[in-house]
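Sharing a chain and its predicted structure for anyone who wants a worked example. Both blocks are below, sequence first, C-alpha cells second.
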Amino acid sequence: MFEDGEQRVALITGAGRNVGEAIARSFASLGLRVAVADANATRADRITSSINQAYPERAHAIVADVTRAAEVDGMVRGVVDRFGRIDVLVNNVGIVDRKPILELEEAEWDRVINVSLKSVFLVTRAVGRVMADAGRGGRIINLGSTTGYVAPNNRTAYPAAKAGVLHLTRAVAIQLAPHEIRVNSITPNLVATEVDRDEPPRNYPIKNLVGRQCQPQDVANAAVFLISPGAEFITDSDFLVDGGSMLAR
C-alpha cells in the first residue's frame, strides 16, 4: 500500500467492536500493524486474537481509560515499546446520551463529554508528540457524527461533543501541518452496531439517499482511503459517510 515499503503502525481507540473493529481489521489486511485499544480487555483480546490468526503478529491489544491522561500516556508508550512507532491514529471511541437537557444529569454529561471529546484531545496530544518527534509525518482521523451538524431532540452531550470533535480536528490540522501530520474526520450517520444488554436496539429507520443503513465497513473504507498515499493532499477535511442523510431529512 505504501511505496516506501515500510510497515506502518496504527493506534485505534474503541477498537474492541463495531466501527473500531472494522477499521482495525481493514488496516491489518493492508499490512499495517494495529494497536487495538479498548477499555474492555475481553473485547480487545478477542479482536486481537482474531486478527493475529489471519495475520500473525500484526495486532496488539492494549487496555486503557482514554479519559485519563496518565493512562493515555502509558498506552502510547506501550504501543511505541511494542511496535517502535505510531504512524496513524484513529480516535474512534465515543458514547451517547439519550436525554434532553431538562432530564440530563451532570454526571452523564461529564461522562459523555469525557469519552467522546476529551479523549480525542488527550490521545491526539500524546500521539502527536510521538509523530512530531519521529519526523515521519502521520495521519490522524477523528470520528464525528451527523449530530455534530444537526442536533436531534433527544440527545444533548453527544451532539455537543461531536461538534467539538469537528472543530478540534480543524485546530489540530493547522497546528500539526508543519510536522506533515494530516488530520481529518469521518462523519457517519446511524451506523448499524452491536449494543450492550442495557442499550436499546439500533434498528433505525432509513432516511438517506442510498436506501440502506450505514455499516461499520463503510466507515472503515473511508479510513483506509484517508491513510493511503492518494490522500496525501487532504487535511482539515470532514468526510461524510452518511448516505446523504443530511439531504434526506
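Comments welcome. The mean pLDDT is 94.
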